Amino acid sequence: MRVSVVTTIADAVRGMLDRVPTPVAWRSWRARRAGAAFDRRYGTDTQAHVAVAALNVGPDIACHAVQYEPSAIPKVRCALRHLGVRPEAFEFVDVGSGKGLVPLLAARRPFRRIVGLEASAELVRVAERNLALYAAREALTAPVVFLNVDALDYEFGDRNQVVYLYNPFDEATLRRLVDRLLSVARPAELLVVYVNPVHRRAIDETGAFRTLFENGSLAVFRRRTPELADGSRNGHEHRGQER
């Protein structure tokens, strides 16, 4: 009898432990909850996924694209906290801006300008509707514009820029984008935020960036200044956990 009782208790404990969410599951639940709350509050549509086949983009873009998924709001806020720059001196560029969630969140900070680059005209229309709904409820501290353009055709120019990437395409296209960013003769500063950095070697292998922050699910890079761009490898300034 005693063995049976102990076994029953042990089974019950194991069952309870099996129901305890892992850290990854907990963060995912928290992100979904925050996203749903955002859409309820503002009447926006930022959370529903859109498959590549439904983006209505050309085959040359579709073959390198990934489906639309919104950035997790906690990750966006974490990235913005770790930029280490004065927003008013920088343009914020979201590559693959989708339905516009990241530019809306960034617009609570006084960036010089916020630009969403999106190859899908349908998603740009959704983003513009979301911007109107959000601006009706919140005071934006930066101008926001959405452009229906292939990011590889965008003129990044020589302005101070924060370039935000939520794994918008495959490694081959990311390498082309990084090459384009580095081809600009920049006296200006360049930061890259890479969320879900599955192809981060496309950035690391250039030797042109140092890592300001990383926590596994996102990394913040800063282009090396000329005196540091001497072929030395990236230095890591801070590692942390997402909050």
Tell me about this structure.
- Strands 3-2-1-4-5-7-6 form a 7-stranded mixed β-sheet.
- The longest helix has 20 residues, at 23-42.
- 36% of the residues lie in helices and 16% in strands.
- It starts with a helix and ends in a 20-residue tail after the last strand.
- The chain has a single domain, classed as Rossmann fold (3-Layer(aba) Sandwich), CATH 3.40.50.150.
- By secondary structure, it is of the alpha/beta class.
- The protein has helices spanning 2-18, 23-42, 59-62, 73-81, 101-106, 121-135, 171-183, 201-204, and strands at 91-95, 113-118, 144-148, 161-166, 190-195, 209-214, 218-223.
Overall radius of gyration: 21 Å
Strand order of the largest sheet: 3-2-1-4-5-7-6
Overall residue-averaged pLDDT value: 85
Question: pLDDT below 50 for ≥5 consecutive residues: which ranges?
Answer: 227-236
Per CATH, the architecture is 3-Layer(aba) Sandwich
Look at the structure and give the CATH class: Alpha Beta
Number of strands: 7
Question: Any descriptors?
Answer:
243 residues; Rossmann fold; 8 helices; 36% helix
Quick structural summary:
The chain has 243 residues and is of the alpha/beta class. Helix content is 36%, strand content 16%. The N and C termini lie far apart (48 Å).
Question: How do the strands and helices of this protein lay out in sequence?
Answer:
Elements: H1 2-18, H2 23-42, H3 59-62, H4 73-81, E1 91-95, H5 101-106, E2 113-118, H6 121-135, E3 144-148, E4 161-166, H7 171-183, E5 190-195, H8 201-204, E6 209-214, E7 218-223
Parallel strand pairs: 1-2, 1-4, 2-3, 4-5
Antiparallel strand pairs: 5-7, 6-7
